[in-house]
Write a structure and sequence with these properties.
Keywords: ATP-binding, Nodulation, Nucleotide-binding, Transport
Strand content: 25-35%
Number of helices: 10
Oligomer: single chain
Largest sheet: 6 strands, mixed
Shape: elongated
Mean pLDDT: 89
Protein name: ATP-binding cassette domain-containing protein
Helix content: 25-40%
Organism: Noviluteimonas gilva
GO molecular function: ATP binding; ATP hydrolysis activity
Family: Belongs to the ABC transporter superfamily.
């Protein structure tokens, strides 16, 4: 069995669909342990990355390794070490719950019954029900229970709460966060919902246009982004001259600046530019990530990492 310090390693990984470059020489190393959130705008390359890592799609160039193994040469034993839950929560609708459970118990030699029951206990799923009779939230929870019970070293969750209502999302996140099984595996969590990322993630990975733009703890990333409100009685400084500018909005006569890697010197810059008052405001992870992505989506050649 191959084991090293990284669950995912890519080098120069590229994937082209005709004229479109979905992954652009991506170099990424995800350390073993904890919950790693992968975020990015639509078209950032997240789904393509997962499909290559899971061996469902070949790369155009470069290499991808998962759990130390070339993703294009995964054996059945390798796949048994990887749990996967996607947004579709695809299960055979005609099968009864008891039959699906028994099939998974036979298939995975590392089956953890306690982990399975711990997660499934959050949901009202009966053995005699057919999969097709479950709500979307119940299917999501059932899928998560099956994935964790197989005893994976790596659990990949690709938009697992997409389409779920607020109650179902909360149940899914709580069953993930409070499952002891996650202490023994690394989790890769892909979502567009920043409130989910704030709750579960230890590490934030930002992709844009198929490239790695940033990787750090979510709190560390938020600390790099600041929001300044300035009362400037005229047009204000040329946006091109504003250091670290991510976004500029003019609301109710005030200038709102979202900036990257700026300290109190930025307040002095605004005052020197004619601001009568300057105030710093807290920034949520959602605001910080969206501002960062908007800037880099508009200017793909400018990357901060």
């Amino acid at each position: 069995m191959i084991q090293n310090d990284y669950v995912i390693e890519t080098s120069g990984l590229s994937k082209r669909y005709g004229r479109k470059l979905a992954l652009d020489h991506l170099d990424l190393r995800v350390p073993r342990g904890r919950i790693h959130a992968v975020v990015g705008a639509n078209g950032a390359g997240k789904s393509t990355l997962f499909r290559i890592l899971l061996g469902f799609l070949p790369p155009t160039a470069g290499t991808a390794r998962i759990l130390g193994r070339d993703s294009q040469q995964l054996t059945p034993d390798d796949r048994g070490r990887i749990g996967f839950v996607n947004e579709e929560h695809t299960l055979p609708g005609w099968m009864r719950i008891a039959a699906v459970i028994e099939m998974h118990r036979r298939q995975y030699r590392r089956w953890n019954e306690a982990a399975f029951q711990n997660v499934l206990g959050h949901y009202h799923v009966l053995p005699e029900q057919k999969v097709s009779q479950l709500s979307r939230g119940e299917r999501a929870g059932f899928n998560l229970a099956l994935a964790l019970a197989q005893g994976p070293e790596l659990l990949v969750l690709d938009e697992p709460t997409l389409g779920l209502d607020v109650v179902a999302k909360r149940a899914f996140l709580e069953s993930l966060m409070y499952s002891n099984a996650t202490d023994e595996c690394t989790v890769i969590y892909c979502s567009h919902q920043m409130e989910e990322i704030e709750r579960v993630a230890d590490n934030l990975i930002i992709l844009e246009r198929g490239r790695l733009m940033h990787m750090s703890a979510p709190d560390d990333f938020c600390a790099r982004v600041t929001h300044w409100v300035a009362d400037i009685p005229f047009k204000g400084p040329d946006p091109m001259s504003v250091p670290g500018l991510l976004q500029l909005q003019r609301l109710d006569g005030l200038h709102h600046y979202l900036v990257l890697d700026q300290d109190e010197d930025f307040a002095e810059f605004l005052r020197a530019s004619g601001a009568r008052s300057v105030q710093s405001m807290p920034v949520s992870l959602d605001r910080a990530v969206n501002g960062f992505l908007a800037k880099n989506h508009a200017a793909p050649t400018q990357a901060h990492a």
